[in-house]
Amino acid sequence: MTDRIQNIIDDIRHKSVALHQHLLDERDKNSAFQSEIQLLTESIEHQKQEENKLLSEITMLKAELEMTKSQVVENSHPSGKKDEEIDELVKEIEHCISQLKK
Fold first, then answer.
1. What whole-number distance in Å separates Cα of residue 4 and Cα of residue 12?
2. What one-character-per-residue DSSP string does 59-91 give?
3. pLDDT of residue 80
4. pTM strictly above 0.85
């Protein structure tokens, strides 16, 4: 019976060592996963900062676009007036040329 007890004890010892090794392997995996999670979290934060930077740049560019559009609209109105002034000047020049020909 002592041999049987010794065999059971040895079997329990082998199982205990195997479980301990399995526990150490799982801890190593867990540590690797934790490191990967940390890197991914940092990457996400970097991407969020980049996104915020790009969104603020988009907002600034939209404001510039609106300002440019308003300037174009403002500048387009006086051009009609300028066209009238140019027509008047052309008429005056034509009148002066006709007077010089006489």
1. 12
2. HHHHHHHHHHHHHHHHHHHHHHHHHHHHHHHHH
3. 61
4. no
